[in-house]
Amino acid sequence: MMKAHILCYLVNIFILTSGVTNHNYYWRDYWGRITPDAISFDGIYIAQAPEHGLLPGSLDTERNEITTEVFGRKIILRRGIKVLCDQNIESFHWDKISTNQLVKEYLEDAVVGGIESDSLLYIGRIFHEGVFKIGKVFPPSSPFSGFRGWYNFNDTQYKTDDFEILKYKSLPSPSKCQ
């Protein structure tokens, strides 16, 4: 009986300490070729590149560039691109959310996609102008809020408070020991 309690305790310690970095995803350098572990949703790869921080966006594999938004404008980046990767796409899911629902606890298993203006950026997605677009989501602690994307027709910022955010499935909850 004592061994069962010790084992249960050790399993709980492992699960709780594993929660500090509760993911297996990583960012791989992109050199014009998609690797089998690259994450794609509806044919769109999630990427990031350095520009006034590290910005997430939609990867165009034919042009070897990502599209994202910075300082209220659509931008195209071609250098320093990294692609979101994992061995298991089932580890991810999209949650529909509104900006007023973003709280610190909710973001604990959201996928971090970069940094801008001293704020972590999370991966967001919208269906806009007939296509899915990957953009950035600022946390509630930021002076900015909501999803930031772009308009195709005039290259200006598109902002919305209703969007999807990429989440990473959590590890199981600690077991209850008797």
Characterise this structure.
This protein has one helix at residues 2-18; strands spanning 26-29, 40-41, 44-50, 54-60, 65-70, 73-77, 82-85, 92-98, 112-116, 119-128, 131-137, 147-150, 157-160, 162-168. By secondary structure, it is mainly β. It has one domain. The strands form 2 sheets. Strands 1, 2, 3, 4, 5, 6 and 7 form a 7-stranded antiparallel sheet that branches. Strands 8, 9, 10, 11, 12, 13 and 14 form a 7-stranded antiparallel sheet that branches. It starts with a helix and ends in a 10-residue tail after the last strand. The model is unreliable at 1-20 and 171-178 (pLDDT under 50).
Q: Layout of SSEs?
A:
Blueprint: H1 2-18, E1 26-29, E2 40-41, E3 44-50, E4 54-60, E5 65-70, E6 73-77, E7 82-85, E8 92-98, E9 112-116, E10 119-128, E11 131-137, E12 147-150, E13 157-160, E14 162-168
Antiparallel strand pairs: 1-7, 2-3, 3-4, 3-7, 4-5, 5-6, 8-14, 9-10, 10-11, 10-14, 11-12, 12-13
Overall strand count: 14
Order of helices and strands: HEEEEEEEEEEEEEE
Quote the distance from N terminus to C terminus.
10 Å
Taken as a percent bin, the fraction of beta residues is 35-45%
What percent of residues adopt helix (DSSP H or I)? Answer: under 10%
Q: What is the C-alpha radius of gyration, as a whole number of Å?
A: 18 Å
Shape: globular
Tally the structural domains: 1
- Residue stretches low in confidence (pLDDT < 50, at least 5 long) are 1-20, 171-178
Mean pLDDT: 85
Largest sheet: 7 strands, antiparallel
